[in-house]
Amino acid sequence: MLSNLLIKNYALIKHLEMSPDPGLNIITGETGAGKSIMLGAIGLLLGNRADAKSLYDSSEKCVIEGTFNLAGYDLAPNFEDENLDFSDECIVRREISAAGKSRAFINDTPVNLETLRKIGMQLLDIHSQHDSILLGNNEFQLRVVDSYAENADLLKKYQSDFNAYREAVKASEELKNRAHQLRKEFDYDQFLFQELNNAGLKADEQEKLEQELTILENAVEIKERLQLAHAYLDNPENSVLDLLKNAVGSLTQASRLVNDYDVLRQRAQSALIELRDLAEEIDQVNGNVELDSARTEVVQERLDLIYSLLKKHQVPAVEQLLAIEEALQGKLSIVMNLDEDLAAAEKKVTQTMEKMLAGAKSLSDRRKKVTKAIEKLILDRLFELGIPNASLSIQIAETSPSPTGIDSVTFLFSGNKGIVPQELKLVASGGEFSRLMMVIKYILADKRKLPTIIFDEIDTGVSGEIAKKMGKMMQNMAHNHQIIAITHLHQIASSGDAHYFVYKDHSSDKTVSRIKKLTIDERVQEIAQMIGGHNPSEAVLHNAREMILRE
């Protein structure tokens, strides 16, 4: 339950703080005094959008903080689902900076608005005076049935199965589309792959072939140059090797005279050995260079094929052609296995659909099982609230699977004798909507472990004895829930365990909204004024006191 509420710098509220009673709390005040502003601030704790324009003082930040006592409500799993620490005392805080930036905290842990909404809906239920219109909405009617049947866990499981089915259908459709495209491309892809595969490409062959072709095309000149180089080195008549031999001999003679010259001899000897090897290698290379026109033609044809494939696939090197060949092979392999993959995808669609429909059937059975009980409870309570001839029929029709199951729920209602029940939105009056919503909140209250329920003028369109009975219903609800009721009716206001009065304070330069908890005497005065105006008579004051004491 809400044990403390703090609102700072919001709309007409400069600073407001209240500690509601655990039972039935009544809030009254003149229209425009700030009651709806309070609800707007509380809505921020539930994740509603923030606006910097709503700040009382645009130079300071706005703070709304709610302290909740959650002992006995078994809400720890909800916090664990959001990776939040749980304790019996929970502090929810929302801040809006002067620049309009919003931040939210749960037990001092920063959270996003989605998390704030998920936790907030477990702490508070706000029913505004306009929400009664929702009762005519079929989706809301379905939620009423689910809440009474306590279908939350079953619905959560079904929704998981429904999402799995949708994912399976999506995957199957994507595979079918891909299969269609792949099959359209199969013949061409197979041709391209066969062409590359038949080419038998190797990663480094282009460079080697280009080098070989250069040698073959210039073989005559290359052999001439190599022969001349060899002749310079090892010509029997006058060669570099003969001259170097003579140099080695001379240095040998000199080193015998001076030992230090032996280093020069060694170097000359090494050069002689190296040049002999060089001469032999040149001669060997020269022997390998052939004048082979047939080989030239083969190499040229091979390079023409490679160049053609490079141009066709618009890539610069053979390595990319090999990568394309591998990718084509992968695509062809997929096509070869498509029938098997499509069958597996269809099987998964069937399996997930069967599981989803089984869950939907269980959900539907639970809904149908409780409709008569809901009808009876609502009609019994409506009788108490002055609609003795009401008739109600909850119709459940089968529909296509949706996130809520395979059921469409429609409340057919008539508030008058002899009138055929029709859809609520077509026949119910404002006062009937208010009483119906009150009854539904009443019968669902014990189905949800909800700490706090706020009613914002749910009594619209009712008065007199009916209003008194609505107040009694709120009292009964307050045995297991904290109730906060904003009302303009003295019959309901007199039912409260605590009474708060909202008013405007014009004493400073800027009007502010304030709230105060009324004493018994102040409650008598307020309720008397609600009955008889600003100057109530003694009889009215006496009547107001009796109403409070009697309640």
From TrEMBL:
Segments forming a coiled coil: 155-226, 261-288
Presence of keyword DNA repair: yes
Similarity remark: Belongs to the RecN family.
Protein name, UniProt field: DNA repair protein RecN
Protein's organism: Dyadobacter beijingensis
Domain spans labelled RecF/RecN/SMC N-terminal: 2-506
Residues in the signal sequence: none
Chain's role: May be involved in recombinational repair of damaged DNA.
Pfam families in UniProt: SMC_N (PF02463)
Keywords, sorted A to Z: ATP-binding, Coiled coil, DNA damage, DNA repair, Nucleotide-binding
